[in-house]
Design goal:
The protein is of the alpha/beta class. The chain has a domain at about 420-520: GMP Synthetase, Chain A, domain 3 (2-Layer Sandwich). The strands form 6 sheets. The protein has a 9-stranded mixed beta sheet, with helices on both faces. It has a 5-stranded parallel beta sheet with strand order 4-3-5-6-7, with helices on both faces. Strands 17, 18, 20, 21 and 22 form a 5-stranded antiparallel beta sheet that branches. A hairpin with a 5-residue loop joins strand 21 and strand 22 (about 410-415). The longest helix has 17 residues, at about 35-50. It is globular and about 70 Å long. The chain starts with 7 loop residues before the first helix and ends in a 9-residue tail after the last helix.
Amino acid sequence: MNVPLVLPEFLDRAVRLYGDKPAVYCDERVFTYRQLNERVNQLSHGLKDLGVKKGDRVAYLPPNTLEMLEGFYGVFQLGAIMVPLNIRLKPEDYLFILNHSESKVLFVDQDIYHLIEPVKEQLETIEHIIVQYKADETNEIDYNEWLSTYPKTTFTRAELDENDVCSLLYTSGTTGNPKGVMLTHRNNYLHALCTMHHLRVTDKDVYLHVLPMFHVNGWGSPFYYTANGATHICLKSATPESIFNAIQEHKVSVLHMAPTVLNSLLQFYEKNILEIEQDVRVVIAGSAPPPAFVTRVEKELGWEFIQVYGMTESAPLSLVSSILAQLDLLSPGEKARMKAKAGYPMIGSDVRVINENGEEVVHDGKEIGEVVTRSHGVMQGYWKNPEATMETIRNGWLHTGDMGTIDEHGYIDIVDRKKDIIISGGENISSIEVEGVLYEYLGVLEAAVIAVPHEKWGETPHAFVVPREGHSITEAEIIAFSREKLAHFKAITGVTFVEELPKTASGKIQKVHLRNEYWNSHGKTGRFIN
């Protein structure tokens, strides 16, 4: 008899094998896997009592907490669909997503409730709002009081099929409204099996939740770390200080984050040299970092650097940049360059780089094409948006919108998003490549490069730079440095100094806001607004 690949099995396994082992640390609280399972059962009983049934959507708006983690399994036992929400959106964004998803129940953290309150009366399908860590003045259901009224006994699950949609994740839209990505139990289950292999997850791991659980690379962690009986460390607020404190206190062995967050940890470590005894793996998703960045992480922090690549629509990960055995004799500098790439396909993912004719580009690390993938993780489609689904998935291939190259070893290097490629005098320039050079300049803390119009060349690279504290740098110096390190047509032609760069909740730099800022400051609109 075939056993369906459904996600509650992961927690079942952890309870059977690791029932008395610490499963979750959150604030000053600690719960074993057996206790976590009891809370999950209480949640499922409670949701059923509220009328939630198979196929209903249940929305979550908390930071990384025990309550968020247990929500996944509590919702899944009913065959309901989890709708995790980005904690850094605006009230009108929540209004759209909650109404578009037709969510029935909303769980929200007290610290974020003020973003729901202005639109509460406009929510069309939400029947119950339940507040976690509720303050006395908030007139809603208190989560812990509500949960405590339900039994910890085994919950009789809905009949689950591996092709049932279990999660609905809304991508942040820079144009139009966000799109809801439908992922199935099978998507997430097989992705977890693949990822736990490539990230070498074991029951000895202690995982620190830095990336938000609603985020694409944070999304899978409740599955593959739970399945292996690893210990979860939840942080409501992930600052450099709190991250390092948790790493030391709990002997954290693995954490996922965006490059900008890792950069902030490096800056903190420079001023606060800390002793970390255990081996640590840091998994980075986002724009490819410069090789010098990889070297700093591995030499200064002593952590193993693992670059991964993916997107919400592929559940998410497709590529990993670990060093293949046959490349182990490369020099440290060459290894750093390989690790800085997006990497080679994970098991179960067929990832290619194709030209405009749909043909694979030459494996020379030079010819640029679009990255496409087909895998067990590719979404079922966009919720209530068949047009966007057909535009993104064509002939069985998910078109990522990312442009890349592939080298003779099979490593893919993301050079830019389609919209971020700079075309100067007919030449394609990768903003990521230019940013990598700027990060080598001592006085640069953070940098982002966009295209700006140029009378002669059409477009040229322009840098937004956050100066490093205690360093005085000028536009002329940075331009001269980029001209020394790059072909002249790739060098930046202007610099805007800023105190900080706009980022998503996961730490990804939002270049669309930089383009808008540039145009607004120059009294124009339109061309580069996405």
